[in-house]
Structures
1.
Amino acid sequence: RKEVEQDPGPFNVPEGATVAFNCTYSNSASQSFFWYRQDCRKEPKLLMSVYSSGNEDGRFTAQLNRASQYISLLIRDSKLSDSATYLCVVNRQDSNYQLIWGAGTKLIIKP
Amino acid sequence: GAVVSQHPSRVICKSGTSVKIECRSLDFQATTMFWYRQFPKQSLMLMATSNEGSKATYEQGVEKDKFLINHASLTLSTLTVTSAHPEDSSFYICSASLSSRSRTDTQYFGPGTRLTVL
């Protein structure tokens, strides 16, 4: 089983719609959680951290469920520019804070 | 924010040659630099962690004699792919951290280097 699992997609979503992704992680010792965005052939860029209480940044909402070991990302009012691959990342304190990356979920926003 | 550069951005080489990739932190001193590799449609995989002035720590399955890492200063780390083969073709990304604990909120990524070995 992969340490961080994501549905690869692609998710084809009309502009303006709401879309949600989930990510599951296997190591209960994981301490920090993040969503990154990666455009084709580019480096990943930090989208947002995920806090236990859930957090929101504009149209993006992230939530963490430690009991079930999953993280979610919700995008409201999706824009064409949201088209990208979204990477779920987990930072394990028991492994020298190593970042463990999911393979990503591809999102395509259609006009 | 902090800027990390990589050079070259793209390289095409013949099988058997060695390729050096540079990673520089432009406006900060990086205690730790990380080298990742990403194959198409796959996740980033950490190859090694390098701290300035000490030997790099390689992840399991990464050959240290094939992927030579030198972190000679607080602003420069290099990755040399020795005797490259087509299976080494990948997207290599470095990141630099201000903290020895490498928390992601202090880890800044370079733009990546796409290596194609013919």
Note: DSSP finds no helices and eleven strands in chain B.
2.
Amino acid sequence: GAGVSQSPSNKVTEKGKDVELRCDPISGHTALYWYRQSLGQGLEFLIYFQGNSAPDKSGLPSDRFSAERTGGSVSTLTIQRTQQEDSAVYLCASSPRLSGGNQPQHFGDGTRLSIL
Amino acid sequence: GESVGLHLPTLSVQEGDNSIINCAYSNSASDYFIWYKQESGKGPQFIIDIRSNMDKRQGQRVTVLLNKTVKHLSLQIAATQPGDSAVYFCAENIGSNYKLTFGKGTLLTVNP
């Protein structure tokens, strides 16, 4: 597709369940980013990938969060044993290469995660 | 402006007026800035960017001004239209750093 695609668009699950969120970046974009946006807030950076490698995982809120990327394309963000405070919109972005200088990140429409 | 708690700064304008949205950034080492527009239920949409070696950049109906002395960024929208109603975020980036740091956003409402 022409833009960043995320699925599912909405996810409702019970506390304690695991969830998996998917991101398809823009074709040819080597850099991929995950952010979290809580209600009425700005974006909180979680993790980035350059190719399949995630050099810095320090933005992940806890060890319940993990992410992977395969084939330099699709990425999945997994949240284990979900808690109510994990409820947020999870946004994925991509750029032709790592942001720096003049590389705007292009965002998908996010996955709205609700933990009951 | 800065937000307090969950309440976003808001700007309400009449259709056809010019809008100015302000952003104070935090890091004097930031050298690249982006404005995003976010409509309800959508992801942020890139509007315009500017590097720190410039103080003004113009796009279609939009102008970004950068004042590095006071660490201030503004987005001017000419002839504001109802379709411009959205939350606007500024974001900053430092050098080759991969991370964008976002402000909390300003809600723009355009009255017909």
Note: The first strand of chain A starts at residue 5 and ends at 7.
